[in-house]
Amino acid sequence: MKKILSYLIFLVCIPLAIALGMAVFGDRQYAFAAAAVAVLSCIPFFISFEKGENNTTRLVIIAVMVALSAIGRLVFYYVPGFKPVTAMVVITAIYFGAEAGFMTGALTALISNFFFGQGMWTPFQMLAWGLIGFAAGLLAKKLISSKVLLCTYGAVSGIAYSLILDLFGVIWADTYFNLSRYIAMVVSSAPFTILYAVSNVIFLLVLQKPLGKKIERVKDKYGI
After folding, report:
1. Are 155 and 201 within 8 A, CB to CB?
2. What's the whole-model pTM score?
3. pLDDT tier for residue 26 given thresholds of 50, 70 and 90
4. CATH number of 50-222
């Protein structure tokens, strides 16, 4: 039941909230959509909680992962397209579950955009990174056991993120889905997409093993 609720929130409620925000409030009033995505992304995570101190520790660790992900995005501010966000989101997801992965991706976009700039693109970034984290959580066992699959997922995630953001660009420009414009945007953003896909692979190769070991130690210590 909890999994079904998570699927409904992530795949139905959040996209509807973004669509409602754009339709009712317009592109200048992103606050409703961003707030709705932030709140909705946390619900499945907290529903999965059970009473116990280990869940408090789990929440603290995930909050740290969100902070590191946001800071990592800021550190590479001057290198567009080369960011560790996806890697941090994926690592969080494979060690703490799909719900934690979505929440980490969504909150990273929201928090880091207080520096990069908030706008109607924020909910789309929250959705994109959230879905990347959610899917990584579902594939956690396979991604942990195979470096090839992990790197492949990182590359595919970079492409998926770019495609979702290009979708936002088309809707923002035309107020509807314009296929010809979408194709043009996908083609024109190809260099960025390739760079981001490659950076995901690099950061996953560099960060997954050391962070994974530290996370496993903490999980064993606190019985998470």
Report:
1. yes
2. 0.88
3. low
4. 1.10.1760.20
Structure tokens at 114: 């207080």
pLDDT in tens, 84-134: 999 999 999 999 989 899 999 999 999 998 888 787 788 889 999 999 999
**Are the C-beta atoms of residues 2 and 25 closer than 8 Å to each other?**
no
Residue 16 pLDDT more than 90? no
Q: CA torsion sign, 86 to 16 to 110 to 43?
A: negative
Question: What is the helix, strand, coil percentage profile of the chain, to 5?
Answer: 85, 0, 15
Domain boundaries, the chain: 50-222
Tell me if 143 sits within 8 A of 149, measured CB to CB: yes
Distance CA 20, CA 35 (A): 12
- Lookup: tokens for 113: 């955009």
Dihedral, 180, 193, 45, 94 alpha carbons, nearest 10: 140
